[in-house]
Amino acid sequence: MTLSTAFTKLFGVRHPIALAPMGGSAGGELAAAVSRGGGLGLLGSGNGDADWLAREVPIVAKGTTGPWGVGLWTWAIDVGAVERVLEHGPRAVMLSFGDPSPFAERIRRAGAALILQVTDLEEARQAVDLGADFIVAQGTESGGHGSRRGRSTLPFVPLVVDLAAPVPVLAVGGIADGRGVAAALALGAAGAVIGTRFQATAEAVVHPSITTAIVEGRGQDTERNRVLDIARGSQWPSRYTARTLGHRYLDQWRGREAELAADPQAQRAYQDDVARGEVPPLPVWAGEAVDLITDLPHAADLVATLGAQAEDALTRAGRH
């Protein structure tokens, strides 16, 4: 079975799988490896930092002949950041977390595929109106940031599929093996965007302690919260909480976010703890499917494995 969808056809890739553009960890080596494996590698550019792009884009450009793209946090960018990204000629640009309307037309004019991630139906309607080539429906099971009032992947994806048709939809959130990819296709999606699973690969730009935490992590230990954003002085908008593995500051400040935000001494204490190595330099972003991650493969091999698992799952489902 060959899984041919609107996603594989547009990008000319073998598998309906995209790398989530995770800020920091989705660098050039990881994006290139995903593309070499037959998926779509997306660099996690975040705010479009010029130095980061200058370092990572040549790595992905030299590392693959396949398509690749860049992901940006919409709340953190301006037109200049988008222009810097487009100068590098990405095949796709994915915008997440904020109003994409100031940037959508510029991306389309440049010839890059416009991928808009949405966390609710209002955002999905806006994405359709803006002419998105693909809409990414993010469920709350996903690791890292997402909507504080979002919905789970299973009910959310088909709602977005129905609302957006004929615009194709990609699913993200709680997908860490080929069965999850197959489930996304069964829900009507044209593919899956995968994050946490790709953090635990040889090419991901993550500290070894974070890799170990992911491989040893359990879904019931993940939690969606704002505590760690507040403690580390992050400017993420309050409407987006982050799913992470457990953390000492979560236990200390859970339910006391307003108090933490008003306590600069507590925030300095967090930075001091990081400097002393008593807490990780970054939170361990991890989705609810973290239990399914038990090894550290090369990302290109992982893409092929996920594709084969998805084909097998759909074949077995057809027999039943």
UniProtKB/TrEMBL annotation:
What are the leading ranks of the lineage? Bacteria, Bacillati, Actinomycetota, Actinomycetes, Kitasatosporales
Keyword terms: Flavoprotein, FMN, Oxidoreductase
Q: Does the keyword Glycosyltransferase apply?
A: no
Q: What is this protein called?
A: NAD(P)H-dependent flavin oxidoreductase
Q: Which InterPro entries match?
A: Aldolase_TIM (IPR013785), NMO (IPR004136)
| One GO molecular-function entry | nitronate monooxygenase activity
**Classification via PANTHER family:** 2-NITROPROPANE DIOXYGENASE, 2-NITROPROPANE DIOXYGENASE FAMILY, PUTATIVE (AFU_ORTHOLOGUE AFUA_2G09850)-RELATED
What EC identifiers does the entry list?
A: 1.13.12.-
Q: Which Pfam families match?
A: NMO
